Amino acid sequence: MSSTLFRTKKVEQSIQDTEEPEHALKKSLSALDLTVFGVGVIIGTGIFVLTGTVAKNNAGPATALAFVVAGVVCALAALCYAEFASTVPVAGSAYTFSYASLGELPAWIIGWDLVLEFALGTAVVAVGWSGYIASLLDNAGIHLPEALSGRDGAHGFGFDILAALLVLVLTGILVLGTKLSARVTSIVVAIKVTVVLTVIVAGAFFIEGDNYKPFIPKSQAVEAGGSLQSPLIQLMFGWAPSNFGVMGIFTAASVVFFAFIGFDVVATAAEETRNPQRDMPRGILGSLLICTALYVAVSIVVTGMQKYTDLSITAPLADAFKATGHPWFAGFISFGAAVGLTTVCMILLLGQTRVFFAMSRDGLLPTFFSHVHPKFRTPHRPTILLGVIIAIVAGFTPLSELAELVNIGTLFAFVVVAIGVIILRKSRPDLPRAFRTPWVPVIPILSVLASLWLMLNLPAETWLRFAIWMVLGFAVYFLYGRTHSRLNRRAETEEVA
CB burial class (10 A; 0-12, 13-18, 19+) of residue 1? Predict the structure, then answer.
């Protein structure tokens, strides 16, 4: 039994499966499209919200260093993803990479977790987008009925019509084709980046040097019960995370890591890329580099415009401009945030459907979902199914009750991918690698250690959710996936022959 659980799927077989007509996705994406996808999903609520949160509570003006630390952790993982994506250009990202290096059960675990992470992330961002749009409509004198706002549970029935409509519209766009999705994303990303650059350039004129003093505020312990309290760290090391000081920067890095989640989604589109061996590394590393530079610049500007102790937690960029007497920029930033969240939703939904599609093509989920649309060559069945489910979740569930989108699943995927690079280098040194992670095994090991460190900074509730979802995943695998696996069926056929 153990041999079947950890049986790997050959890279050649994975690539061969993508050439079956009923399962073949359309190859239409370029390196620019991939970079735009990456920037589109990474720049979201993080740059508009988390900057103020970590500056006020954890790192002060040194928030810029926290973004650098988080960016370095992601860069280590990105180097591993780039090698895998160029070597195994198949939909599914970390799920497919794990299948080729670690085996079926580890691949299932990763895929099962990513499906939840992307689904929950799409719902959360959709509800956040709805809040921005509702606010803009209120400013224009247009007020939605309370029953359709989804945020007033005291009055009984509530449905967030804006969040649900957004998910359904994006589902339709994804069904029509990835290239169309890339075009829509390009337009929205251009608007979003323009807003971010405006914040950087305009805000630079309102920087006051005194706001940077002290650059690294004096350290203090996190109060018990705080949102950043990590029982795991206390259990293992005997101390709690710090607010401010040097350790405050690392605590802040574990929070702002949320802002970087998404670059790995680029790898899910490998199968739809015209030249994945060349373009996947460019898209993954390029989008991460661009976003890290923008994050650092924005955090430097916003902490220079307003004293970190006075920054707003909910809308730090907009409120910083209000504090300097320029409220017009606040409205412009809110508009940019609303527009920007659109691409975050779409690309998270795209990533989730590709992982689901890859798992169904391997037989671990019903193969009904592994057939592509005869005209658009997109996985329309899982896209429609998941889009409707997420629309319902986003419509009926208030933002306060939606489980917080956490990064534990992504960090866990980082660990597995990094280990997979080492294993595949040993087991298949003959594979052509258009991009090779430098300094193997040093870089992958550093990636594993850095990801585990950030995982330890997550609260206990996050680990509990992760454990519950994994237990459910094991049940689904052993009751359905293992017996319907195409890989195991092939092996059984070969043994009989």
Answer: exposed
With contact defined as beta carbons under 8 Å apart, do 39 and 193 qualify? yes
Rounded to whole angstroms, the Cα distance separating 133 from 169 reads 15
Closest CA to 13 of 109, 102, 99: 99
∠ CA 402-381-387, rounded to 5°: 20
Q: Are 252 and 59 in contact (CB under 8 A)?
A: yes
Return the biggest CA–CA distance within the chain: 79
Instruction: Give the type of residue at 264.
Output: D
- 220: enclosing H helix or E strand: strand 220-221
Cis peptide before 441 (omega within 30 of 0): yes
Cis peptide before 214 (omega within 30 of 0): yes
What is the full per-residue pLDDT of the chain (497 aa) written as tens digits? 556 788 898 888 888 888 777 777 888 888 888 898 888 888 876 677 678 888 988 889 999 999 999 999 999 999 999 998 888 888 778 899 999 999 999 999 999 988 887 887 788 788 878 877 877 777 678 877 877 766 554 455 678 899 999 999 999 989 988 666 677 778 888 888 888 898 899 999 999 999 999 999 887 655 444 444 455 555 555 455 557 778 788 878 877 887 787 777 788 788 888 898 889 899 999 999 999 999 999 999 999 999 999 988 767 887 888 888 887 887 788 788 778 788 888 888 988 898 999 999 999 999 999 989 988 888 999 999 999 999 998 888 664 444 444 567 788 889 999 999 999 999 999 988 889 999 999 999 999 999 998 888 776 777 887 888 899 999 999 999 999 999 888 777 766 65
3-state secondary structure of 243: strand
What does the block give as tokens for 309? Answer: 């102790």
Q: How many CA atoms lie within 13 A of 124 on its CB side?
A: 18
Q: How far apart are CA 333 and CA 320, in angstroms?
A: 11
